[in-house]
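Q: What does the assembly look like in three dimensions?
Context provided by user:
Components: two
Sequences:
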Amino acid sequence: MAQTVSAMPRAFAHLSDEAVVALVARWDDQALAELYDRFGRVAYGLALRVLRDEMLAEDAVQEAFLTAWRRADRFMPERAKASTWLLTIVHRRAVDLVRQEERRRAEPLEAAGDRAGEGPADDAVWLRYERERVQAALRQLPDQQREALELAYYGGFTQSELAERLGQPVGTIKSRMFSGLGRLRDVLTEPEPGERTWQPRPSTT
Amino acid sequence: MATEALHNLTAAYALDALDPDERRDYEAHLARCGRCRDELASLSEAATSLAYAVSSPTPAPHLRERIIAAARAERPNVVPLRPRWAVPSAAVAVCAVAAVIVLAVWAASLSHKVDRLQAERADQEHVAAVLASPDAQSVSIGDRGKLVVTPIGEAALVLTRLQSAGSGHVYEAWVAENGKPKPAGTFQAQSDVTAVPLEQPVPKGATVMVTRERHAVDLPTQMPFIRVTA
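A: Here is the predicted structure of the complete assembly.
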């Protein structure tokens, strides 16, 4: 396996994720492998969190990558980053699968805990960085908004199911999701400390 | 469902928290509503970031093999020819060849994140094909690249060795005619060649500029570091 990865060591290293997807759209299977090497782990972690079953998670990831393979020509880079596009497909597939698994969803979500912060020691640095960054952003949300986002995104609950589960009107759930997700977006796009002091530079022409 | 109610489903849609009927209604609405498309783009990115908040154990190695084998099995009977921009050492040399501008523009349009693209934005590949037309005029920007404009004013900037805008910054292109610049899209530097399809027509005599900004803005907040007149 590792040999397969290193057989094409840096062939795609200079390409953006979006350019890799453009190659996938040309039926380049090595580009698909590259896409998997970049996002397979995040995709699998997400599917596993939603489905809480390794085999189902593998199925979801496989189906999602094959969907990406078939639809890469319809990817619109002006609409989304490649990672957003791909992980949206993965999430949709995982949620559709978990909704067919009523038994699984009857289990309390907490039991499946995501072991936050206990990632394997070999975590890629950027994955750990991203995890900490998003977790920190989530902590800045009011509890009810965070709960709505987590139950919807990781639990696969629809807004109507959430309304029932939490004993709230659907409108309340909707607005918690809206405010929560908007707030999450704002926190994540705030400049990091240290970036605020940028001064205009004279033209380099 | 009332339109206002549909607007309000954007977050739930981004989180995949709609049932099938709601999802269908919302997608039908989305096809007609530029405001929701814009909002969905940013909320989807936020929703997707949640994928990174959970631990990411390494999947079993057979998963990669299974996926690639299944993909090969359903590939149409074509040999993928990798375009030259995908080959590291060729990236600079390709710039001069008109036909390759198609690929460079296409690659760059794939690569940059546009926040405020107009809803009815024409198909990028079509624009790129127009740019490569023999009628396109090319205006040199010294050793920094060129501006390519078709007779009907569709245009692209092709910049060489543009420095990264840096974390938290974007480049923004502008088209100024009779004074006031109009925003023509944000972009990031690519390695070697950065090709930017402009989102505003460039009439003869108009000035195309590029500034470095914190995010997409309506008017430049910085001095342009590239100015070229069509």
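Follow-up: The CA atoms of residues 122 and 165 of chain B lie 27 Å apart.
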